[in-house]
Amino acid sequence: MKTIQLGLICVALCLSTFSRANSVQVYAAASLGPALTDVIRHYQLQYPEAKIVPVFGASSTLAKHIVRGAKVDLYFPADQDWMTYLVKRNKVKASQVKPIIYNQLVAIALKDARIPFRAHPTFNFPQAFTGRLCTGQVDSVPVGKYAKHSLTKLGWYKRLEKRIIGASDARAALAFVERGACQVGIVYRSDAVSSDKVKVLGTFPVQTHPDILYTVALTKQGEKNRQAIKFGRYLGSAAAHKIFVQHGFRP
């Protein structure tokens, strides 16, 4: 009986070790949610032995968790500032940072809203609507930082500043608009196309904000994880790229 019990314990430990060895923990920007979930689904159809575990949230919050010791294999933020933050703190090697895909910044409102929009300094957007504007927190959350850049470049920020609601991430900002808590939102195009409740009022020109480039990097832990290395390569593949584009991202 003892021999059988020891054998069962050994099998359980081996299976547990195998499971951990094939598990990949990914910290990704909230705006990647639907697209990355779809990418993971396609990947695991090809490689069923792999277990990809995504955690979505604000790029800033996720980066701070990594610095505090979170066990993560891949970091996939929505801007470069937070990737640089990890590189400077020796959590990610600069050589591991790889560009994956771009996004666009758009203004949104509920589908039945009648709000004019033109991304030009001569257009008085602050007077085009009377309610609040939701985006990410303008000093820390990537989508909010991009929004502040564009609003400032177009000469609108000072007149809108007191009406801006800073959400924890792009998906939260989208949800505020969907619920009617904010009349207008500034989010990524990928967020807007994922919703059947909002419409795009217009796109902010790329000249009004830094490039919205999503990069991915293996952490120090991830460099030792074969499955993480393999999945990281897949994220840069044509197959993954096609899925991202289908979800509103751009080449």
UniProtKB/TrEMBL annotation:
Binding-site list for molybdate: S31, S59, Y188
Database matches in InterPro entries: ModA, ModA/WtpA
One BP term from GO: molybdate ion transport
Signal peptide limits: 1-21
Keywords, alphabetical: Metal-binding, Molybdenum, Signal
Alphabetical list of NCBIfam families matching this protein: modA
Quaternary structure note: The complex is composed of two ATP-binding proteins (ModC), two transmembrane proteins (ModB) and a solute-binding protein (ModA).
Family: Belongs to the bacterial solute-binding protein ModA family.
Name assigned to this protein: Molybdate ABC transporter, periplasmic molybdate-binding protein
